[in-house]
Amino acid sequence: MIKRLFIFAAIILFGLMVLPLVTRIAPFTELTPLAAKYVGAEAHELGAANLVTAVVVTYRGLDTLGEVTVLFAATAGVGFLLRSRTKKDSSIADAETQAVEAGVQAADPESAVPVEVEVEADRRGSGASGAAATRRPAPLSELLSSASVVLFPLVLMFGAYIFIHGHLTPGGGFQGGVVIASGFALLMAADASRTLNHGVLLLVESLSGAAYVVLGLLGLVLAAGFLDTTFLPFGKLGQVFSAGAIPVIYSFVGLKVGSELTNILESLRK
Amino acid sequence: MSSIEIFIIPIGLFMIAGALIALYQKSLVAAIIVSGVVSLVASVIYVMLAAPDVAMTEAAIGSALTTVVFLYALGRIRKQGGSEND
Question: Could you give the CA distance from residue A254 to residue A178 in angstroms, rounded to a whole number?
Fold first, then answer.
């Protein structure tokens, strides 16, 4: 009761803390000066048709680099956690199967019924581990496996289109990368025994991450500052090869995000 | 009240209902799928509010990838025999 009272009081206090946000700040009726500057000057400063991408990659480029770093740290954490777990898991699972077998043998002389019950319970409790222990591959879904053959290249192409055209149409490196990762997720769901090459994924991920930083440093050397994209020619507004280094940077971000998320899925799957 | 708001308010109510279903759902798999549906509906709202960039992120990450990651995580937890009562 008293605990609930405390929780209630804490919620009310928090509400009072954020109350000024509701009462004092009125919604903007026009663009703030900074936004007006971006909208007015972006087209001839950077030459990207999609203003959102210009802001994300160039004006707020350092934040995007930070986001990519956060995603990298998360992937590294997941990989580390799951890899150290899998080793322990397999040894525990082996011990468990041995124990179950021993139990079955011990229970065998008494009667047949408890053994069946025990095996049944084991199967129901952990159907996946039963399948993994006997190394029986999961049955392929005909629908999913034939659909994945047709859909996987299309999904991959769509993801690449999203990040290559990030400076022209909505979307960009992150969205394209996630679409590519979902294509790989389809592939994994269609065929459980298929394994992806971790080395290639790691290589793509680290090379594109390094290329992103190198492009940022090139901006520092050749143009106004770190992550300045104006060192490549602008081209014509609205074409694929335009907007300086923005499409190049976003392509690398897309490859990096796609390979990182695929790596997370792959290490979760085992 | 503009014409967009008329559509957005029922969709928002639908999202709240979906979130409550996901919270009080007994089956974990169903809860994961319902929360994915909530993300998908949120991305529809973003499109209506003229934010296609955000809508793409929400649809791809919120409804596709997060659902898959949650399902894999649930599979791993069940494999380890962590919970038999879901």
Answer: 8
**Strand, helix or coil at A50?**
coil
Extract the tokens encoding A175: 């969205």
- Cβ-based contacts of A179 with chain B (< 8 Å): 60
Instruction: Tokens for A20, please give them.
Output: 């000024």
Give A195 to chain B, closest Cα distance, Å.
Answer: 15
pLDDT at A55 over 50: yes
Any idea where the domains of chain A sit in the sequence? 50-86+142-270, 97-136
Sign of CA dihedral A229, A234, A236, A242: negative
| Tokens at A262, concatenated | 């695929």
Contact indicator for A40, A52 with CB cutoff of 8 Å:
no
Nearest-angstrom CA–CA distance, B39 and B83 = 27
Contact B57/A174 with Cβ under 8 angstroms? yes
DSSP A117-152: HHHHHHHHHTHHHHHHHTTPPPPPPHHHHHHHHHHH
Region A188-211: what's the mean pLDDT?
82
Mean pLDDT of B27-52: 90
In the stretch 198-257 of chain A, residues with CB closer than 8 A to chain B read none
A contacts of B69 (beta carbons < 8 Å): 264-265, 268
Residue-wise pLDDT for A8-38, tens only, equals: 999 999 999 888 877 777 777 777 888 888 8
Nearest CB among B53, B56, B72 relative to A268 is that of B72
- Assessment of whether the complete model's pTM goes beyond 0.90: no
